[in-house]
Amino acid sequence: MGLMKFGKFTICCLSALSLTALVSCSDRRPRTFSERTKRDTSNDYIIQVVEDTEPDTETAPSEPWDFNGQIVIFFGEGFNSEDFINETMELIKEHYGLTTEKDLNFIVPLVYPDGLKDGRITSAASITDKLTSGYIIIGAPVDTDLMTTKLSDDYYGHINYPVISLLPSNTSDRNILGQEASCTLILQYGKKIQGLPLQELGRHLIINSINLITGMHKEFGYKANFNIGAELVIPAQYICGDTYTAEAYIDPVMNIPSINHFVFK
Fold this sequence. Notes:
The chain is of the alpha/beta class and 265 residues long. It has one domain. Helix content is 26%, strand content 19%. The protein contains five helices and eleven strands.
């Protein structure tokens, strides 16, 4: 699969103890993640439902363009140019068959640094509200850990929607360790690339992350996240797609694999 062939993905079952590869789909309006996975009732599901009540299946959205939650996309370093943002938003419209700008209201773009209140990165945490179903960070700059920690603190240490950090630009120990403690997933590319290839890869990861979040919304309601300690390599591999292999990041000092930080090649 090339980076621009966003309509084809390899899907993995979310069962905690089994991996089931399903048929790839090339529809213009691709099925959401939950529609393309198979429930294994013999094992514990790795998604945690935070809603007090089960979602109404008659009104739950069946496609991303009927999605009644919101997904914040934080455009960080290397991914915050006007061209990249406009092309990404157009790609989302094309990929899901959206026809109007209003259809894109489920995406809340936040641009670093100009879109931050008073230039403070922690203000990026205040953009969320009760409709927030996911938070995608691409190109996490320095001090992103302060923002994600604030998000986590607002939910007493476990955010009730996925926070996904893609291709962090600042990989200092503090920034990465802070995100590991407060994000659901961190995905880092294992090779050095820049320019157009890096941006194409970024769009690929954004589209798959949206698929994952909207699929969880449909299946469980917008207040859904992965359990702490779940086999997060499964959603990590889904976001990467079948061209890449996601492996746990190994701390170079402690030589311990991370449970939510993955490197893919």
